[in-house]
Specification:
Elements (H helix, E strand, L loop, with lengths): L3 H12 L24 E7 L3 H14 L7 E7 L8 E6 L4 E6 H4 L5 H12 L15
Parallel strand pairs: 1-2
Antiparallel strand pairs: 1-3, 3-4
Length: about 140
């Protein structure tokens, strides 16, 4: 679901009868600073599991839209020593935490479990709806 600013921009473009031929001054653009991009997630993965990595990225961004989670990055690896790797890292201003490692955890994460681990670190009071833990009563 696009943000309100994106929808407004698209609506303006669709209703405009004039074509904007002005080229923006790219020297005025500023890259985001690393400190403004936390918390963020890095998914480190063997290239054979690209689809799983992109699926995980999409699910995390949809569940934790900015500013809760500022970015999710992919770090593809393709060497014999990184074969089968799938790690999920959480980076914050003062900490880096390994949330999941396929080899030590015994497999790929269930997204429900991974979302709970991310939530517990960055927004403990947040409800994950149907993905939330359920306690036996």
């Amino acid at each position: 679901m696009p943000c309100a600013a994106c929808e407004e921009n698209v609506d303006q473009q669709e209703t405009s009868t004039q074509v904007n031929t002005t080229i923006p001054d790219t020297q005025a653009f500023k890259a985001p600073s690393p400190s403004s991009m936390t918390p963020s997630v890095v998914i480190e993965f063997c290239t054979r599991v690209l689809h799983r990595a992109t699926w995980t990225l999409t699910e995390l961004m949809l569940t934790f839209p900015p500013p809760t989670l500022m970015s999710v990055s992919l770090a593809p690896l393709d060497s014999p020593e990184t074969g089968g790797r799938f790690r999920v890292w959480l980076l914050s201003e003062n900490d880096t935490a390994l949330l999941w490692d396929r080899k030590t955890e015994g497999g790929f994460p269930e997204l429900k479990d991974l979302k709970q681990r991310v939530r517990d670190r960055i927004d403990p009071g947040r409800s994950l709806g149907h993905s939330d833990r359920h306690t036996k009563g």
